[in-house]
Amino acid sequence: MREHGHLSEWNEDRGYGFIAPASGRAKLFVHVSAFPRQGGPPSVGEILSFEVGEGRDGRAAAKRVQRPGGAKPPMGGARPFSRPSPPPRPAVPWTGGLVLAAVAVVAVLGLREATRAGSAAGNAATPLPATRVAPVAPRFSCDGRTECPEMRSCAEARHFLRHCPGVRMDGDGDGIPCEQQWCR
Q1: PANTHER family this protein is in (predicted)?
Q2: Half-sphere exposure (Cβ direction) of 176: Cα atoms closer than 13 Å
Q3: Are 109 and 141 in contact (CB under 8 A)?
Q4: Which domain covers residue 160, as residue numbers?
């Protein structure tokens, strides 16, 4: 059964919109393919006649849309409104040269990397001289001392404050230990 209404919303870029039926029912989705080919693009406010069918998502949608005074749509459904094709982009003369230059740069970098890898593989048979690194022993260790009179330097007091639990060397809580004796 055909209904009537008007096109209340239209998105030209995406080719769809919504029809507000005259019966007062909720707006119906309408795709550009539901419009007859002749007559130009749909416009908001346009009075339309349509059938209610099922859209791709299973919800009600307007189908076989007619415009007042227009020809009836064919029985197989309406053919989509065809938008004019955008004009072809003009060819940019320097793009071919740019692509060729990019390929050349990639080839040179690949050759350079392959040469570098080949020389590294040739040097792989030569063993590297062994070097010894002496382990670094910590200067101070947590040995149970917790108060400033037990320290021997400001550096030792700072180490104990940062690394040893239960120390009582920062009375004012400013992060500087033993301010009266070592760290002035």
Answers
A1: COLD SHOCK DOMAIN PROTEIN 2, COLD SHOCK DOMAIN-CONTAINING PROTEIN 4
A2: 7
A3: no
A4: 148-183
On whether residue 114 sits in a domain, the answer given is: no
Residues 59, 88 contacting (CB under 8 angstroms)? no
CATH number for 17: 2.40.50.140
Domain boundary among 66, 86, 120: 66
Alpha carbons 64 and 80: distance in angstroms, whole number: 10
Contact by Cβ (8 Å): 3, 22: yes
Q: Give per-residue pLDDT as tens, 25-46.
A: 889 999 998 998 887 888 899 8
> Would you state the structure tokens that stand for residue 154, as one six-digit string?
């400001």
Nearest residue to 54 (alpha-carbon basis) of 31, 22, 71, 32: 31
Give the chain's domain count. 2
164 within some domain? yes
Q: DSSP letters of 55-73?
A: -TTSSEEEEEEE-TTPPPP
- The secondary element (H helix, E strand) that includes residue 100 is helix 95-122
Closest listed residue to residue 26, CA positions, set 3, 57, 1, 45? 3
Tokens of 88: 């072809």
